[in-house]
């Protein structure tokens, strides 16, 4: 028998950021990965303090960005790499009204730190009204982040490449492992979890393209009009992701590929080739807040889910809240507590 403080089920942002808290606090654990393509692994990696439709900010944005920067530096200390790319988002304006709105908001206390008042006009792309830069925005190097942490876990015997079988759990034992706590971080696959399959997550399917651009950008920005465009390597760029809250099948939806081609063609007027189309299912919640907490009967069984909106910022920030709750009895914020659904 093996004894551990924690079992983590899942391998997306929820699981990896929670694993980081355990590493930081020297807790023993194993993490189960089913080796499937998660929403996290197809994500763009954008770290954005704004809602770019209306130029507003959101709950805890400044605190979450600060906490992510600190966390990524901590992860660098044991994996040897910094995964945060400091390339700012440039929002391509649709018209003069948007510029006026942006200018007005740069004078508000809440937004002046995030909206750069100096506009730019960029080459290569169509941007007759220019672009506005989002201060403190950045991008996670998604592939490197997952490769870096999984290699570290593997080297420390903490990664189990196996789908967790719910029928094999008995009280605080799973096969040959005794655990103090178990944290389920399965994203949309939580629907197969008999302990938490009643949580209210809605699948929001997102597609993105990898495209080869015939004319490379001469700047290092993340461009945003309908979707995000940024360089991955050489002349290959990421463009996406779309949203679709309807229950869809596990295949590429051609109409979403078309939506992306149309979106990109609106501001990139040169030739491009599609290299790949990918998709994933975001675990979203009606109130757009994560879901944290424990099972009413099995009190050492925890859920960490609902990261469909701002998976990176929320996933990073609330991993510490959950850790403090489990280890030190810190109360969960009412906004994210699973108990908010018991009304
Ligand atoms: C196209 C697209 C672009 C996105 N872009 C961004 C972005 O730029 N910024 C941002 O912050 N967010 C973005 N997101 C959202 C974000 O990626 C997700 O909301 C978030 O990753 C959800 O993380 P998660 O860990 O909860 O779930 P997931 O990423 O779905 O991970 C859950 C994992 O658990 C595994 N698992 C499930 N059950 C088991 C089991 N029984 N045993 C073992 N393993 C199991 C699954 O295989 C899966 O790999 C994007 C999403 C999509 C689809």
Automatic annotation (TrEMBL):
GO cellular component: cytoplasm
Residue intervals of the FAD dependent oxidoreductase domain: 5-322
Matching Pfam families: DAO
Domain of life: Bacteria
Name the record gives this protein: FAD-binding oxidoreductase
